[in-house]
Amino acid sequence: MYAYDELDRTLLHERVSEFRDQVKRRLSGELTEDEFKMLRLQNGVYLQLHAYMFRVAIPYGTLSSQQLRALAKVARRYDRGYGHFTTRQNIQYNWIKLSELPDALADLAEVGIHAMQTSGNNTRNVTSDQWAGVAPGEVDDPRIWSELLRQYTTLHPEFSFLPRKFKIAITASAHDRAAIKIHDIGLRLHKNEAGELGFEVLVGGGLGRTPFIAKTIKQFVHRRDILSYVEAIMRVYNQYGRRDNIYKARIKILVHELGIDKFAGEVEEEWRHIRDSALAVEDAAIDEIRARFTYPTYEKQPHMPDELKQAAHDPLFERWRRNSVFTHKVQGYSIVTISLKPVGAPPGDATADQMDVLADIAERYSFGEIRVGHEQNLALPHVAKRDLPALWKALDRIGLATPNVNLVSDIIACPGLDYCALANARSIPIAQELTRRFANHDTADLIGRLHINISGCINACGHHHVGHIGILGVEKNGEEFYQITIGGRADEQAEMGTLIGPAVPYAEVADVVEDIVEAYLALRDSGEELFVDTVKRLGVEPFRERVYATR
Amino acid sequence: MPLVKGGHIANDIFFHVADGAELPDDGAVLVSAARFLESSETLLRREGKIGVIWPNNRGLDDLVPHLDRLALVALVFPSFRDGRAYTQARLLRERHGFVGELRATGQVLRDQFVFMLRAGFDAFDVRKQSDAEAFGEAARRYSVFYQPTGDGHLSALHRRNESHASESAKP
Asked: What are phi and psi of A350, to 5 degrees?
């Protein structure tokens, strides 16, 4: 956990007071809606189909129990008793009142939570691996560097009015859980041949209507130079990114139009001027940030405690353990993923009551810490193995022990036409129907790892391009149709999915997905070959033949 | 449109000369980039201060050689959503050492003042009278800054380092 210091707290309170003044001026008519729009967007407030939507940042996906309780309180006091966790480590409230927003922000500020730059054409919430600091094999805790970047990007005087939104993600693992290749800037912490810590810098990834996988712009940027290098990229983008067409305004288009080499040359030239400026990051400054992160004092625990041996006789517990419990870097501890995808419910939603109970559970079993991942699930990062049986029971009591993590019903979906003013089609009911179709956990286990991603429009908030199965809602003659792709992935081998056939109407989507899964089960060379690997090996054609033969 | 300079509403001493219009014999004038580049020698020979309005979609290369003879550079925000002039401002101040008046023009609203001050602007053509009157209040809203810029404020990172160093120095 990062604990705010006096400077962080002061800035946040100053920001809340500024926003309170902006809302007051809007309500009095002093600000036009057009003027206010940019200001509210800079603070995470969208106007949706039915009401204002409020998006709150959970930087690098780390929450304390106290912070989770504050999120629950906002859901209960200012909204309708629930919140929705997004694919970028944010939480959204869908029914907020403008006049109450400043109070909600002030409540959150008390526990060091903000909504700065969760929307608008600026640098968004810096995201990272939800297992940061506890996954085996990391070269460093990426949250230290995420926090450095969070501070650097917050209220940046030069880059708060960019051509378009700008997203940064950081990983420190060989296996990328932060989807850095679909970000405007992706940072991979690693060491060079001399053993020095630094970053591989990727640029120009993104989804939306023109999807691109990010390209490596520099294989190694020394940690000392990371802020100046990022500033150089952003400065080139701020000057030359297109502003004539919002669909061509992301940095990925600039990188594509200039070509990565020319773009890299521009960045290098700019960097030369600012490399040795006040942006240089001294190790002492990093130590200051690092010192504000608290780490649990782990106890010496057996690898296989008695509690776990006994519980292994319960097949329901075992199913959950095999599915949701992951290896921790410290012996005797585990990382537990909490599925927010129960059968028949909207993906990523949690009620205020669930959040409150989970905050208590985290205090009891996870040193008061909770993580949020881009798959719209939560995690408890430090659970002693002996506590797993008790934890499972506690989670099950509040409906948070669905053993479907990484399985076919662990669906990522945007809010879609049920909430969103941009959507062409519904996402949530498709997800709900699919979770019902694949409600049998034995079947889901047999299918194995399979990520379904659903977006209700081309803006791709559900990351459909990189779903193993991607579902994109489009509108055709006033009806909802869905384009289906297969073979996408968002990890270190990131790739865009390939269209499998013509778009299908709403009522047929679940049938088509079932047929794709059937085809996979028939085509895979063994039970070990994952869906995405079968698609890679065989291509789309055999799937197309089987799924569309009778359509 | 009120001008805020030195933190207060002020009279604009620069006379804005439209392209093609005749230059006054003396006094401070503000001209477009096109006119300035076309007749910079004539303009610079004349008595009185010169200011140039530099568009936000043009690089600074043609402007930089003249900076030490310019009293004012006006940068443009065609819309407050268009942030290119923030970069131009920082480059003029921090890289090219421009010390004259740096004026923000166009859609300049209260909520940009802090960003503009940090980027190096010291004069503001403010759209609304009420925003101009609120300048002092808006400019003082923040006391903590996360980024180092040329405005002299220490970033939070540096402040932490300094306070840490001074604590360690205590006996």
From this structure: -140, 140
Q: Where are the domains of chain A?
A: 6-109, 142-290, 306-397, 412-548
Helix axes A352-365, A65-78, angle to 10 degrees: 170
Closest Cβ opposite residue B83 in set A10, A152, A161 = A161
Residue A155 clears pLDDT 60, i.e. is over it: yes
Q: Are A518 and A442 in contact (CB under 8 A)?
A: no
Q: Which CATH fold would you assign to the domain B3-142?
A: TIM Barrel (3.20.20)
Q: Which fold has domain A412-548?
A: Sulfite Reductase Hemoprotein; domain 1 (3.30.413)
**Domain boundaries defined on chain B:** 3-142
Task: Please check the confidence at residue B170 and state whether its pLDDT lies above 60.
Answer: no
Check if B55 contacts A (Cβ < 8 Å): no
Q: Which CATH class is domain A6-109?
A: alpha beta
Q: pLDDT tens digits for B19-52?
A: 999 999 899 999 999 999 999 888 988 889 999 9
pLDDT in tens, A298-344: 999 999 999 999 999 999 999 999 999 999 999 999 999 999 999 98
The mean pLDDT value for A493-499 works out to: 97
The pLDDT confidence band at residue A80, using thresholds 50, 70 and 90, is very high
CATH for A142-290?
Answer: 3.30.413.10
CB-count burial class (<10 Å; 0-12, 13-18, 19+) for A522? exposed
Which stretches within chain B are classed as H helix? 33-38, 40-45, 84-90, 113-119, 129-133, 135-139, 156-169
The CATH T-level fold of domain A306-397 is Sulfite Reductase Hemoprotein; domain 2 (3.90.480)
Q: How far apart are CA A126 and CA A167, in angstroms?
A: 7
Based on its alpha-carbon atoms, the radius of gyration of chain B, rounded to whole angstroms, reads 18
CB-count burial class (<10 Å; 0-12, 13-18, 19+) for A330: middle
Predicted TM-score (pTM) of this structure: 0.96
B163 interfaces chain A, CB cutoff of 8 Å: no
Structure tokens at A346: 């909207």
The confidence score (pLDDT) of residue A450 equals 98
Identify residues of A whose CB sits under 8 angstroms from chain B CBs.
5, 7-8, 10-11, 14, 17-18, 22, 30, 35, 38-39, 121, 151-152, 154-162, 235, 238-239, 243, 273, 277-279, 281-282, 284-285, 288
